[in-house]
Structure formats: structure tokens, C-alpha cells
Amino acid sequence: MTHLLGLTGSIGMGKSTTAAMFRDMGIPVWDADATVHGLYAPGGAAVEPVKRIFPEAVQSDAVSRPALNEILRTDPEALKRLEEIVHPLVKADRDAFIAAHPHELVVLDIPLLFETSAAEWLDTVLVVSAPAEVQAARVLARPGMTQETFDLILTRQIPDAEKRRRADVVIETLTLDDTRTAVQNLIYDLTGKKHA
Prior knowledge:
9 helices, alpha/beta, 196 residues, kinase, P-loop_NTPase, transferase, five-stranded parallel β-sheet, coenzyme a biosynthesis, EC 2.7.1.24
């Protein structure tokens, strides 16, 4: 039986780095963001259905995120209609990934894990976290990131304290070595096997 481990965390908390550590240790990792990018890319399964509902969001045979974000900003009903298209496609991709990786542990990297009620079907939820000042320093060091954009992103995410409260496991991502050790220990806890 495959153990489904959900991985989430607010922006700048080290989720991508932690996901890479699981991959490096031989654990299959499904990436929700990468899946959506693929669905929106030229030839992606979401392009035609999105074009039917939001024709102005499709440019050069792909879904334009800036155009889509503008629609979502101005039309309160748009998000629900978009989710009706995208969520079943994401679920189908996720189910296919799990079926293709008959491993004792599969990590599902889901940025909006709590927001999309994924905790209901996962076996374990892992939240990565760091102090607010560390988070801010990491995010504001990103090219093109401003305090205003960072603040806006935070308003759209469940607060870190709430994520920590709802998690089964919390890993502090202050140093790479400590994070890697915590990942190794969690893999051992869930599978009984050591991974170097």
C-alpha cells in the first residue's frame, strides 16, 4: 500500500528544496504546480476548455497566466469556473502518477494543500516552515519580487501558524543539513527504511 505524503508550506519556506531532497533520496514526487504549467502549455489539456470559457486568456495556443490573473481579479465567478476545468485534469494527472509509481511512499507537492481540502485524502501532511524574518529575506531576494507582491501572496495563503497547527509533521528549514536530516528521519518513520 502506498503511503501518500502531502508536502506544503507558504512561499519562501523551503518547499521546493525539501521536495528535491525527497527526490534525491529516491522518493517519487508529484508537483501540482508543474502539472498546472503543463496543462496550460501549448497542447496542454486545459488550453481548449479554458479557451471556450475565457477566450482572451489563451494566447499563442497556451493559457496566459497574466491574462488569466487579470480575469480572476475582475470577475468573482471566474475562479470557480476555472477550477471546474482544472481540478479534474490535475486529479487525473496525480492519479496517473501514483499508479505509475508503485512505491511505498509517494510525496505530493501541493502549494494549496489546505485550500483545496487535499488533507482529507492524504495519509500524512508535512508542512515546511521557517521564522517570518527568514521567509521574508528568502522571498524578497527573488528577482523582481517586491514587498507589495509578497504581502499580496501572503493574503492568499493560509497563515503559516495555521498550517503548522493542521500539519501531522512540521520540518523547520533553517539549514540544509538539518532539513535533509529531518527528511531522512521522516522517510524512516514512514517506511522503516533508511535513505542516504
